[in-house]
Amino acid sequence: QLFAMRGSRCFSASTEPQVAHSSPPRVPNLIGGEFVHSSATEMIDVLNPATQEVVSQIPLTTNEEFKAAVSAAKQAYPLWRNTPVTTRQRVMFKLQELIRRDMDKLAVNITTEQGKTLKDAHGDVFRGLEVVEHACGMATLQMGEFVSNVASGIDTYSVREPLGVCAGICPFNFPAMIPLWMFPVAVTCGNTFVLKPSEKDPGASVMLAELAMEAGLPKGVLNIVHGTHDIVNAICDDEDIKAISFVGSNTAGMHIYGRGAAKGKRVQSNMGAKNHAIVLPDANIDATLNALVAAGFGAAGQRCMALSTVIFVGDSKFWEDKLVERAKVLKVNGGLEPDADLGPVISKLAKERIHRLIQNGVDSGAKLLLDGRNIVVPKYENGNFIGPTLITGVTPDMECYKEEIFGPVLLAMQADSLDDAISIVNRNKYGNGASIFTSSGVAARKFQAETEAGQVGINVPIPVPLPFFSFTGNKASFAGDLNFYGKAGVNFFTQIKTVTQQWKDLPSGAVNLAMPTSQ
Ligand code: NAD
What we know:
Elements: E1 29-31, E2 34-36, E3 43-47, E4 54-59, H1 63-81, H2 85-101, H3 103-114, H4 118-135, H5 138-141, E5 145-151, E6 154-162, E7 165-169, H6 177-188, E8 192-196, H7 203-214, E9 222-224, H8 229-237, E10 241-247, H9 250-262, E11 266-270, E12 275-279, H10 285-297, E13 307-313, H11 320-328, H12 348-363, E14 367-370, E15 389-392, H13 399-402, E16 409-415, H14 418-427, E17 430-431, E18 433-437, H15 441-450, E19 455-458, E20 474-475, E21 478-479, H16 486-492, E22 494-502
Parallel strand pairs: 7-8, 7-10, 8-9, 10-11, 12-13, 12-18, 13-16, 15-16, 18-19
Antiparallel strand pairs: 1-2, 3-4, 5-6, 6-22, 11-21, 14-15, 17-20
The chain binds nicotinamide-adenine-dinucleotide (NAD).
Residues 169-174, 196, 198-199, 228-229, 232, 247-249, 251-252, 255, 270-273, 304, 404, 406, 432, 471, 473, 477 line the site of nicotinamide-adenine-dinucleotide.
């Protein structure tokens, strides 16, 4: 039993009987293939956001333990990189099967630590699982190129080689999907990995690592260290770590991007968002309102691709009242309750911050059409709940618009024309996603061409690409140049080696010092 969750649910893959805990179970690190408890004295409580119950505790991993994890990854690297790609793929084939087997356990853990509804937690696992499935085709994805006879008797070819030890630093909002964006691609390319899960919901990462070991991933190929800023800084500074995959806020992301790059590392940094929906009056009302409600309030707005701002163009502004009608019937409840549409936000601090931003909208002259701040959820009175909130008459200068709220709060703005609406979207510093709702192909095409968001939806509210494409945020939502998963993800975790070979019967003759050419 690695660690059992307080309360009734235990989610270790181990079959040993559950041991009673007087204090909260400690979440182990994974170092060199062993799940080990840190000797750290400082711990952080992992809280169930629906109840404030302490689910477990993570250690602030010591520097020695961190070094041991990197050293284990470094030692495992030579053998793993030389392991045939077909063997590496087979580990992923097995891993996807095991994730399916344990999907329910993973989802319960996610709901308990993160708060989202059970159904949404299944989606969290499933969208990560799809990356594992994609990694099963790594041999083709990692293929190099070959040009025969670039000069007489000479061929040039390129191979994509792994980098070495890579690291991943995760946010709280997708405890399974985001670790699965990172390590399956990295290790199937032949790298070894050090993962730092979010300190708020580390359970899914540990469960996934158990499954990866069960699937046959050799010891040391995947390691896990828990902690916060210090461990992140240690990752940025470590000479043996070649690349960092980060997902989270802009404050942390830009810090990691700068500090990691200063040490010569590759960094891909997916960060915050303010995703807009433009609604034209010719859109299908019913489908559009449903899409806005689902993408605005699903996961309590804690998705990086949540639609947090809707711009009603022209007469579509009259739909605001209908939006309120649909939003206010959503059921806010503990995520394990079968009728829950949305669960709590992650922490008391997050709840206070969201309340402050809602109040900022009101104080700046916007209109609160639906106020979710005073909600009380029976059985979960201590939870960090906020009900669906709709603020209209928002303008670009308001703090509630400029900042990412990351809660169940939808801001509504109005524009006279599509041009005006696109200009609002493009003036926003973020560029993760933007959607348009319309029945006009001409308008949709203009929007697609002119909007500066990296992921565009046309009558699709949350256009997160499947893993054969890549997750392509831009502007302040992304730093780096190789995106997550898909071809770009494989390129991020590999470097190109170009080989030129000459095989011919060489005539003897005078030495030639001029630049060789094939003229
Ligand atoms: P966060 O930045 O607070 O934490 C992310 C990770 O960084 C954690 O592991 C944390 O320990 C570490 N960290 C936080 N502050 C740090 C600091 N100052 N120095 C070093 N390390 C630090 O993010 P979060 O609150 O967990 O996640 C929510 C954010 O993530 C939102 O902004 C959301 O938009 C973003 N996000 C983006 C994407 C995307 O693909 N663009 C996906 C999911 C989430």
